[in-house]
Amino acid sequence: MVRLAVALVCCTACIVGVVQAQDSKPESSLTVNPVYEKNCAKCHGKTGTGHFMAGPSLVSGKATAMSPDEIRTIITNGKHHMPKFEGKLQPSEIDALVEQIRAKGKQK
After folding, report:
1. Strand ranges, E, within the chain
2. Whole-structure pTM value
3. Contact indicator for 8, 72 with CB cutoff of 8 Å
4. What residue ranges do the domains of the chain occupy?
């Protein structure tokens, strides 16, 4: 009986965790996205606000005015000093970054 109760509590905790993860807003997920932290934060900053003489702000008016396709193209093919991430990131990872960057800009 104790095992059943423990199993029930564990299952409930897992379900709550999954529901909360699905409800998390994209604008808050950019800066905690491991792909962003590993590949983007060094130049664009931990919060996406950019670094002087490095990557530009991802929350600026210029960035938020870009279409999803423009952002996707820059991430995929690179631009100026930014390296291309085609072949380094999965298309789904690039799509998630695009969505999160656009949401982060709208949050501002």
Report:
1. none
2. 0.69
3. no
4. 26-107
